[in-house]
Structures are given as structure tokens and as C-alpha cells.
Amino acid sequence: MSGARALWAGAMPGAAAARRTWPGRLVTTLSVVALAAAVTGLLGRLEARPQARADERLWLPSGLFLRESTVGFRETAADALWFQVVQYYGEYRHGRHDLAYFNGMIRGVTTLDPRFLEAYRFGALVLATDMRDVAGGVDLLRRGIQANPGRAMLPFEVGFLHWVLTRDYARAAVWFDAAARAPDADDFTRRFAAFAHKRAGQLEVSYVLWRNLRDTTSDPGMRDLAERMMAKIEPQLRARAAAGAGDGSGPAPDGKGRP
Amino acid sequence: MTGNGDHIAAVALNTFRETVRDRIFYLVGLFGLVLIGSSAILSPLTVGAQGKVVPDVGLASLSLFGLLVVIFVGSGMLHKEIDKRTITTILAKPVSRRAYVVGKFGGLILTLACMLAAMGALFLLMTLWIPVRLGAGYAAAFVFAFLELAVVTAATVLLSTFVSPVLAAVLTLALFVVGHVSADLKAFGALVGGPVLRLATDVLFYVLPNLEVFNVRGAVVHGDPVSGAHLALAALYAACYVALCLVLAGAIFTRRELK
Predict the structure, then answer these.
(1) B119-129 pLDDT per residue, tens
(2) Contact B176/A72, CB-based, under 8 Å?
(3) What is the pLDDT of residues A216-231, one digit of tens each?
(4) Which chain B residues touch A76 with a CB distance below 8 Å?
(5) For residue A74, which residues of chain B lie inside 8 Å, CB to CB?
(6) Radius of gyration for the alpha carbons in chain A, expressed in angstroms and rounded
């Protein structure tokens, strides 16, 4: 007899005898099936109540409180809240609510783990697009930039929001430029900064950025693209110089303008 | 090796065998399931943050499983031997009580080290199919987790010399929680408290182990380097705290009447 069986038989006198009879087994089996069905059904009914989840989010504590109460496991708590954010957004996509608690939830995630770049990016995009709060999205990203200086992703996202939503190309170019100067900036970011300045009419800055990309990239294709873009801008710069019109409006041509 | 050293090693090995017989290593299997679950089931919910969330969950699980072992094995370790009177057989031999306490601690530490090594191997296996930027930081995170568990184990052994197993388990959990917020409590006391509160939070800060010094999970997951100086200081702090607890535990256990 195994240890567990011996324990069971010892703890429940007569249990071994009851187990041997088939009506006993049948009653046990039926009881387990019925109770499991009841538990599953009730849980389904409880989850189907729209109030249940909404109420739960209403009393979501502030991020600072969460920080102190998740002793030593803040980043893991941020992950758990992140799953909630993703599911909450999924429910919104299915038309179940209007994202009323989204801002609080995403701030909770970023307070618990201020280095969670993906949360800033996703949160800012949802705020700016689904909730039509571009300023809120930019504000969230600015908080992310403060907590993560030197990361290209977040200033790039600010530039992206200005580029596609407010269509403020000059401002977008300044942010792309900031992203391109970040230590972890890749060729794509630097290329985009150069494009943005060109689009914003800041040809000199654009030229400098393309040249910088040509000189620093290890990708021959990217170098070729940079050279082609420089060749394209050069006549326009010469024409401007001939007309006596400088760039003027944007950051300095050395690309050191800060947003 | 001295006579005491032999005794300590013998008690430690015996304690280790005992934990193996208690199927403590099943927890490693459970850890593996958590890793697989977090990578396979949770990954779709991470929305681009897979490389951050999955290692985060893995490292947090590692600490939690270690803590569970310390609480459930460490808190009742001495009491079990006293209860079963096996301790009288051991102490009838020329084994000092101090050596016995240190040996018990050593056995549990050996168990934890083996568990962490096995979990580390599983963690490395997981990184084969999860995009994790592996670096020396992860090795450091494992070492820090071990140091943290060593400190908590020593405190648990100390507690188990003079309180019941249940109380020792509860106090260990409380110690783990407060140990992670003691620095915040000290700052709180200095900021808003009167002299009494300030003194109380200062005493808590210096008497209880500051477990946050061993928490590098967030930094490692975000790719930050962990300095060798920090690791050395933390190891020294852990060694001193462990030694302090074991000296106190030995002194208390020597005076304890075993009935």
C-alpha cells in the first residue's frame, strides 16, 4: 500500500471498505462531476457579469502604493498588471467598455517598473489614438524618457505621434533627432530623423544627419541610401544658397538641437 | 578539517539527504512548469515584452520557490528532530549544539544551492526559445538570489531555536516582507516621524536584513550591468549577517532545555 493510501485508510476507518464497493465509487464519481460542473458554471456566470471586472479596476491602488506593497517583486507585479492592461484593451476592442481605467492601469505598470519601455509605447499609442489624447500619450512618453534616458525608442515614439497624428513635422523631426542621438539608436532611427528633417524643410539638418548615417553605418545598403539622399538634397541646398535663403527655422545644422 | 568541521559536515549532509527524502526537489519540476507556462501560455499576452516578462517571471519564481523551501523546511527543521527525539542520539555523540545548528543551516543551504543550480539550468534551457539577451547579469542574479536565501535561512534557523515552527514560518515571511521595505520605512521615519518613530525605523533598518540589496532582478532583466563591487559588498553583508544569526542561534540553542 502506498504512503498516501495508508494515510487515507488510517485517517478514515472504514474508508478502504467503502472504496471497494461499486455504489460508493459511483456516488463519489457522480458527486465530483456534479460539483465540478457547478463550480465551472457558477464561475462562468460570475465572470459574465460586466460589473465584476469594472469594480475590480475601480479600486486599483495607486502605483506608489503598489510599489511598496509588492515587496521585492515590483517588476513581476508590473508584468501581472501588464497582462491586465492587455486584456482590458482586448475587451475594449470587443466593445465592452470605453477604456475609462486605462490611464490609471498603465500608470500603475510604469510606476511599478519605470523601465518597462513596451508599456510606455503601447500606453501612449492607445491614449493618442483610441482615446484621442495625444497630449496624454506624449506626457506618458516624457515620463518614460525621464526614467530611461539614453533609450531611442521613447523619443522616437514621441516623434512618431507628432508625425502621424498632429502632423507637426518640425516637432517630430526634433524628437526623431533626439532618438537618433541615443546610444542605442539603430540605422533606421537615424534614417528616419534625416527623412523627417527633410520633410520639415530643414534641409541642412537633414543633410548632416544623412552624412552622419553614411559615415557610421555598417550596412552597405544604408550607406548607399544615405549617399543617394545626400545627392538629392545637395542641389536643393545649392539653390537655397544661391537664393540667399537659409534653413533658419529648425535646430542647428550640427544636429544638436534638443526638444 | 577540525572535529567540529567534521561534525558540521556530517549534520549538513544528513540534513541534505533528509530534504531529498522529503521530495523538496519536486519544486524544481514545478519551477520548470512555471517557466514553460510563462513562456508558452503568457507569451501571447506580453505584446512585444516577451523578452522582459518571461525572464522576470522566471527569476521571481526562483526566489519564491527558494523562500517556500526556507519557510517550510527551515522553520520546522530543529523542532522535528526534537519532537522525534533523534536529536538526543546526535547530541549524545561529541557534537556540540552550535555545530549541530550550523550543520542544519549548512544542509539547507546545500539544498538551496542545488535547487538554484537546477532551476538555473532550466532557465538557460528556456532561453533557447525565448528572445532573452543573456549576459553575466543573469549569473549575478542567481548569486544574489542565493545570498538572499542564505540570509533568510540563517534568520529562520535563529527563529526556530526559540519559537514554534508555525510562528517561525510566519515570522520568516514577515521578515522577508519587512526586509524588502526596511529602507523605505527608514526614509519614511526620517521624513515624517518624531524621534521615537525615527528611532524605531532606524532600529528596524539595522536589525532586520535589508533584502533589497540582493534584488537585482529588475536591473538584470532590463540589461543593466551589476557591478562587481556591489556583488562583493552584498556577499560580505550576507556573510556577516548569516554569521551573526548562527552565533545567536548557537548561543540560544545551547541554553535550551531539550525534553
Answers:
(1) 888 888 887 77
(2) yes
(3) 766 676 677 778 878 8
(4) 56-57, 60, 217
(5) 218
(6) 30
